[in-house]
Amino acid sequence: MIVWFLTLLFVQTFVFDSMLLGTPFVPFIYVLLLILLPNDLAPWAVLLTGFFIGLSIDFIYVSGGVHTTACIIISYARPLFIRAVYSDTISLQNLKIEQESFGELFRYTAFVILVHHFFVFVFVVGSTERIGWLLNAWLTNSLITILASAFILVLTQSIRK
User: Fold this and answer.
1) 77-96: per-residue pLDDT in tens?
2) Is 159 in contact with 111 (CB distance < 8 Å)?
3) Domain that holds residue 107
4) 59: which of 16, 19, 70, 160 is 20 to 30 A away, CA to CA?
């Protein structure tokens, strides 16, 4: 997990930078760290991990806690997301998310990214005055992040198993 953290943090910072890409829409692939956390971690460890992942991104982007807050919300609601997507699994404790079929992993990834990005952009906007911008930024960044994450998951499928 430390290698994943350092790799995704490096890619997020030096490859998917909005200044470098020249676009206001940037995939936040660091969310994969929360998605691929082992399912047998204690809830406090998941929350602490989410806090430090978000804090790292906030430190890099100087975003004032927006990513930290969204990561904590995702970390807290993680069991609900897992139950929603993997409801047919008998024992959620024995579930290895990274070893599930690509279709289920993609569905889980898309669900987490949509919720995460919603909270990021709600906290960025902070009011209902710019609802059009919020919806546009949320949907566009979510789509870009889902596509980039799917690409990364396909490329690293053999490594994760």
Assistant:
1) 998 888 888 776 656 666 77
2) no
3) 2-22+29-160
4) 160
